[in-house]
Amino acid sequence: MDKKPLYRKVNTRTWGVRRNELVAHYRDQRNTKSESRREASRGSMHSGKRYGLDYTPLFRFLLSRVGGRWDQIFSEVVSRLDCPDPLFWMVAIQEDERSDIVRLGESSYFNGLYVDEQNLLQIVNPELKAADMTPSCQCCTHTFNGVVFGKTAG
Fold this sequence. Notes:
By secondary structure, the chain is α/β, with parallel strands linked by helices.
């Protein structure tokens, strides 16, 4: 039986969906005379940008596998992803890449993960909780590992 992918497709054609502002900047520059002369030096409009994918299922999967063997986790994740890059947004392989908190998206935060000397997946700061966090603004709903923080019930 096939396992579900660890990402979701998100509708990016809806009004209000924000994308990388560099694309908009390129849109404003592409038809100028100076740019048309340098056609060969200009890159693709789609230069590796991947819109419309939500990797929240991946991040929750990784958190549920803390303490497990990295080799097994890695092979399962790679088989269920479109590309392995999002895996390393949250998991640090090198010690100098470790971070307590990883921001993934506009207002979604997760525990940073790393692979220890015994080749086990571990949380960088396991004592960190959503109650310890403060939001950067009051207009957005901020989450830490899927738990809302900074909003008061009203």
